[in-house]
Records
---
Amino acid sequence: MAPAAAEASVATAAVPTDAVARYALGLGDDALMLAQRLGEWISNAPELEEDVALGNIGLDLLGHARALLTYAGSAWGRNEDDLAYFRDEPEFRSRWLFELPNGAGGLDFAFTILRQLVASLYFGALYRRLAASTDPQLAAIAAKAVKEVAYHAEHATLWTLRLGLGTDESHRRMTGALADLWPFVGELFDADPAADALAADGVAVAPETLRDEVLAAVEAVLEDAGLAVP
Amino acid sequence: MSTAIIARDVDADGQARFDEIIAADDKIEPADWMPEAYRRTLVRQISQHAHSEIIGMQPEGNWITRAPSLKRKAILMAKVQDEAGHGLYLYSAAQTLGTSREEMYDQLLTGRAKYSSIFNYLTPTWADMGSIGWLVDGAAICNQVPLCRASYGPYARAMIRICKEESFHQRQGFEILLALMNGTEAQCEMAQESVNRWYAPALMMFGPPDDASPNSAQSMAWNIKRFSNDELRQRFVDMIVPQAEILGVTLPDPDLRWNEERGHWDYGELDWDEFRAVLAGRGQANSIRIAKRRRAHEDGAWVREAARAYAERSSSERGETRRTESRLSVEGVAS
């Protein structure tokens, strides 16, 4: 059997253990929630180009969510739609950052961009590590996602610079939005027993090991944009 | 610029060359001389076409957060994104005629420019995503395929790209209805009820009957339009009747019957008073659609202003350095 074919058969045949499934579900829920939030922007953005861009990013995230939910669900005989549509809030494993409305006072582009900045730099760091997971299915999903989130990070970085350095008004709005957002950033790196146990086998990434890398990347962009971490 | 155009408008050589290109069914390009009325007609038609794509994002955007499966949600998001892209192509095509996107956009927001009457109908059910794809995009395709041969090159080329994507959308819409019609009784009812609402408005998308369409003859003489409103409407009816049979839906038209002599489907008279009322701004959702677009534009003003101010700054050396540094920091994280 050719190596590629062997890999594919591993990927499709493999059913995750309950622990791996719960880990994949958490990652999928984060992506699903953020995709839903970005979907609210479509036809409401400041420019047509941003309707396209935010829709595009949302669509990528929805793709990640579908892959992760499908993989997770295979452990329990449930499909992506069972998991997306037939769970209630207490069963969702997403973190607050991804669930928050698109701004405290409705659709706020500043808040949305800052959340995208944190999210895409976090996803980037996570998926780069996860692409080397000993679980081939998680590795394959992450390897595909990593290319997409690099585009998302570029989009968010450029907008953070434009808004941070643009006008007094845009700077003021970014400062306010950053204060609203920042309390939810730390949760991304909180210890997670499901992930931590799997990290020992090289399956998952322990969240706390991402903290320094992600925060340094976020802070570097904020500093370039003339914004201070609250 | 307008005096230059007027001066060129009486250019006999230019007119002769223009007539020659039209007679040979070749393409007029942006730098070619063209009659002022041809330019005006195209600006109006292309910009209103662009506006229709932009306003048309709303009735479907309404269902993105509520789509009933993740696959349907992804398809719908991709589709609405395509629509924004079509708007952008079309604004670019119109700009080659010497008008700015801001100016066209302002005409939309102030109600001086029209957009397709169809987008002033509401989308109360999920089945409407199917009906819009099948009937509305189906009508748009019948209208737009001949525009791929329109005499104005940039418009024709935009339409070629747009039609490829539109035909996907139409199949997706058909597939939504097909899934519902193969579903539960409630789903069948939802599909039928939706088709009942969209059938007549979709037929009206081709515009008024030929005897009430004063601009058509000139547009046909200029090879902008290739077929009359009624010819295209007939083509559409002939296309959807067999498709409705496959779906198992009925079309809400008691006068719909096969005419052996003509080799076409006869269809009933449409409510042209309703059509005129919608075009005049008195349809179901005219006010909501424009209000939403205006609000997005107003709420986004500070963002566009910031982008402009940043662009001015970043052309200075300091800005360039900052930009480069930040790019590096992104790539550093990404590597």
---
Amino acid sequence: MSEIINILIGFFILAGAVLCLIATFGVIRLPDVYTRNHAASKAATLGVMSILLGTFIYFYALEGHFNSRLILGIVFLFMTSPVSGHLINRAAYYSGVKLWDKTVRDDLKEYNKKMMGKSSAN
Amino acid sequence: MRKTNNIILETAIKVLLFMIVLYSVYIFTAGHYYPGGGFIGGLMTAGAIVLLLIAYDIKTVAKILPINYRILTSIGLLFAIGTSAGAIVFNVPFLTHAFGDIQLPILGELSLHTATLFDLGVYFVVVGVTMTIIQTIGEDE
């Protein structure tokens, strides 16, 4: 029982740390703001959530302490981090940050052009 | 007022605000036995209101929370000076606090301490001062 718990704790914390490391590599290696934000807001969220889950299991199984703040932290992070990633991307797009050179598709640009045309027609 | 069409942020804030305010109240009430207290609790409540200010504009927030923060600050100072000066009535030095185990009808036996009222004063002052600073900088009319 205790061994399984130890392995579980080790797995969650190591997986979280590795995911955060992968997120950092993504931020360094990827070409433009949008892909970097994609790496940072997804991988880092899951990584920090795994670390918090590992910490929660550690305190619950080995110390007998149910720490509800960690659960709240997991839920809070799960809700806020994608929203903040969305807001950063949106702010970058509307302040005119260029997409990567090899991008083939920009639906939002066409949509905005169409909406502009419609509002000037009215 | 510019229409921003920022529905993701507004919907997220509707849920998140309750969690932040709840956590700030927890931090405030647990301050005697755990890390926390009036200062961090007040700052966190002010942070929740600032989050509302980010999502909506200043007039909408004033409609949602019709609070004059300068009056809130003075109420907080009144709490602090009142709980401190109340000791003089009982012929003990200034800032002497009292506590006791009190039997309440529904809640049962509670250990109540007047330092909580002092902390409530700190909480009100922190919320009031932070919001006064941010609103004064924020509004440009």
